[in-house]
Amino acid sequence: MPKQSKRYRSLAERTSDALLPLDKAVELLKTFNTTKFDQTVEIAVRLGIDAKQADQLVRGSIVLPHGIGKNQRVVVFAKGDLAAAAQAAGADEVGQEDLAKRIREGWTDFDACIASPDMMGVVGPLGKVLG
């Protein structure tokens, strides 16, 4: 049996084998942070279903309250009112030919690109760069 570290033993003394509600368990885990980096936590949930049964499959998605920690950079090809609406919605870059020129020159510091239908003539030639 492998020897347990001092840090592990000191943390194990602060816990018990009692079942805790999820919010209390998360609070307890946050007190265990003894490292200089952000740690990850895995959770396994037993749902008591038979995945082989078609009517018992679990599917879906959730929106995390604080996101996943990465801000998405969005560029928008639009003009006129659509450009103003994109800027108001939080787009990082809004442009037309000037934005296309920057992308042709190799600028790809963004995660998503959105184009209005009237700008497809400008965006179409960028297909190889945009993917």
Describe it.
- The structure is a single chain.
- By secondary structure, the protein is α/β, with parallel strands linked by helices.
- 33% of the residues lie in helices and 8% in strands.
- The protein has a three-stranded parallel beta sheet with strand order 2-1-3, sandwiched between helices.
- Strand 1, helix 3 and strand 2 form a beta-alpha-beta unit.
CATH architecture classification of the largest domain = 3-Layer(aba) Sandwich
Spatial order of strands in the largest sheet: 2-1-3
Structure summary, number of beta strands:
3
Count of helical stretches? 6
User: What is the radius of gyration computed over CA atoms, rounded to a whole number of angstroms?
Assistant: 25 Å
Task: Report mean pLDDT, rounded to a whole number.
Answer: 86
Give the strand content: 5-15%
Class by alpha and beta content: alpha/beta
What CATH calls the topology of the largest domain is Rossmann fold
The percent of residues in helical segments reads 25-40%
Count the domains.
2
* CATH 4th-level superfamily of the largest domain: Ribosomal protein L1/L10, domain II
Task: Flag low-confidence runs.
Answer: none
Largest sheet: 3 strands, parallel
**Which of globular, elongated, flat, extended, rod-shaped describes the shape?**
elongated
N-to-C order of helices and strands: HHEHEHEHH
